[in-house]
Amino acid sequence: MLTLLFDGLAYGMLLFVLSCGLAVTLGLMNFINLAHGAFAMAGGYVTVILTNRWGVPFLMSLPVAFLVTGAVGALLEKALYSRLYDKTHLDQVLFSIGLVFIAVAGTDYLMGSQQQILNLPDFLKGRVEILGTGIGVYRAFLVAVCGVLALALQLVLARTRFGSRLRASVDDRRVARGVGIRVNTIFAVTFAVGSGLAGLGGALGAEILGLDPTFPLKFMVYFLIVVSVGGTSSMTGPLVASILLGIADVLGKYYVPSLGGFIMYIVLVAVLVVRPNGLFSRAG
């Protein structure tokens, strides 16, 4: 039981890193970016290519995946996304879902349709016994890395000048510009970091989730469920939602395998019936 709970925790923390960029763009920037999973897929492929083909150590490939997807996000934000900030949510949805299909087709053409296998280093393989409980080494690594990222992201958004300027830019762009805040720069940096975090999540999750050109379509719903259940007013909501959903999914598939991945949808409906705006939505 403890092993299943830890596996669920690791899965949940991974979901958080994959979803937190969407929580930022949707909750703090009010932009619906359904192409978020494409950045996660890109990070996974960067890591697979670096480690499997070029022999780059896995740990060194992780910051590269973050930087590459962050740079791609910055370029796309400047060239495309920034033009849709003032458009309707329907325009944003249609635009970003179009990017998803372009990414899927392009990846299938360049990399093939087969699932990619990530070669982890030996020190991240196997299991260890802790207090009589078998713990996967790689899952323990995921919990540690994702926990640090969650704490750092929360501190940046809640305690730094950048976080306060971002919230001000979202609340009223005109007033924010009037007091000297460079709104366009704030949004560009935020979008790039969110894209980079998605890429990092894709790199970390390639071994557990699998990686193929349909990745953005398969996990798009998962990202949206995390944001819907957790709410978008802070990073605490998506973090708690990710852990809840990860544990529920692992336990559900083990104890009630006939339901498969349907457990997540049950949790989604149950939460939204009680809290329509998510677990940690703003009052009023």
Question: Care to describe what's here?
Answer:
- This protein has 284 residues and is mainly alpha-helical.
- The chain contains 11 helices and 2 strands, in the order ααααββααααααα.
- The protein has one domain (2-215).
- It has helices spanning 2-28, 36-53, 58-79, 89-111, 137-159, 161-171, 173-178, 183-209, 215-230, 236-255, 262-274; strands at 127-130, 133-136.
- The model has no long low-confidence stretch (mean pLDDT 88).
Summary keywords:
11 helices, 284 residues, 73% helix, 2 strands, single chain, mainly alpha, globular
Ordered list of secondary-structure elements with their pairings:
Blueprint: H1 2-28, H2 36-53, H3 58-79, H4 89-111, E1 127-130, E2 133-136, H5 137-159, H6 161-171, H7 173-178, H8 183-209, H9 215-230, H10 236-255, H11 262-274
Antiparallel strand pairs: 1-2
Helicity, as a percent range:
over 70%
The assembly state of the depicted protein chains is single chain
> What portion of the residues fall into strands of 2 or more residues?
under 5%
Number of domains: 1
Please write the string of helix (H) and strand (E) elements: HHHHEEHHHHHHH
Main pleated sheet = 2 strands, antiparallel
| Strand arrangement in the largest pleated sheet | 1-2
Number of helices: 11
Termini separation: 40 Å
Radius of gyration: 19 Å
Strand pairing plus helix content: what structural class? mainly alpha
